[in-house]
Amino acid sequence: MAVERKVYVLYTGGTFGMKKDDDGKLAPQTLDVIKDFIIRHTILYERKKGESDENVWNRIVTKDGLITLYHQLAEDDPKAKSQKYKVLYRMDSLPTPIDSSNVTPKDWSDMAEKIKEHMGVYDGFVIIHGTDTMAFTSSALSFILGKINKPVIVTGAQMPIFHPRTDGLDNFVGSMLMAGYFCDREMLHQVMLYDLNKLYQGNRVVKFDCDSFSVFDSPNVFPIASLETTIKLYEHKMVEPIFPPSLKSKAFTRAETPEVRILRFFPGITENYVRGILVGADGVILETYGSGNVPDVAWLKECLTEADKRGVLMLNCTQVYRGTVLPIYATFEAHVIPGYDITPEAAMTKMIWVLNSGFNPETKRKILKHSLYGESCAPPYSPLLPNVEPGEREQTPE
């Protein structure tokens, strides 16, 4: 008897599910249209000799709407092949699919709630998402979901699945393969991002190319897996995440999103410019030169020191594509926290998460100084939350 695995697929929007309208512009399609297309694509590989499309459809789609994943994929996993794995999946969507450039922290919470709602029923999860802000979403979900025991994979496309040259179907199939057939691999029990035959740690990726099918990269750590003619899992190269107990995803759904800003340094930066960003901010991501350098001028140190006294949390990240901010530069005299090799996307989402955590300022600083879910090479702090001293929590998250 086949071993069944179930995957929950959440369609959130993006190029993946778009098709040109009568005016030649890309327009989002309904979930039913997308599902119908994917099922018909599956039929091409599942049809037995003499079978009609209708017969194949009835065989691969269950009465309650679960779709059978391509059987041939089992050949890529010796364990799945020997135990005759059968992967079924259900496709769902947000109430209103959106272009990823319109994504907000509220949407991250909605996605997380969908995952948590189905966590006990499914063995793996795939989120279809636009590529523009996909790295922000995969980073945010890593903090919202916290420690999980099932794979959550975010993927998308540069060209719609309805186009003959689409990359979307390959990304979908690869994600489903890892979320379904490889769901019991403990190293995959985290939030990840899949793009062009590579599986990355979700809070370690950046979008570096908008013109090619190779869209994402992980500048400072190796991919988790490579899906070429053979599938390779790089367990020995993976930076082991440190998993403290997670806060609930409602941390992203409070009445107001905290005021988090980016201060990117450039030659000739002025005091007025810096003050304009620091004043009124709750948290600031500093994108500095090299390994954390900033101009050696008195007014800058004064600005940063004043911001620190106002309770502004500041995290120093390099604006260089690959590298590490070291805790040895002048910014740290003003209590600017070194971000080590955290990406700008992970820095931003972690800052929002921390500011909404309900802990007092000192505890928030402690959290920012450490790597919680493998997002940087900063010193690990585990277990984190149980070590919080009495009185350090401002309020208990609901």
From TrEMBL:
Pinpoint the L-asparaginase N-terminal domain residues. 6-236
PROSITE patterns this protein is in? ASN_GLN_ASE_2, ASN_GLN_ASE_3
Annotated GO biological process: aspartate family amino acid metabolic process
> Which Pfam families does the annotation name?
Asparaginase, Asparaginase_C
Q: EC?
A: 3.5.1.1
* Record: active site: T131
Under PANTHER family, the record lists: 60 KDA LYSOPHOSPHOLIPASE, L-ASPARAGINASE
- Protein name from the UniProt record: asparaginase
Organism encoding this protein: Pygocentrus nattereri
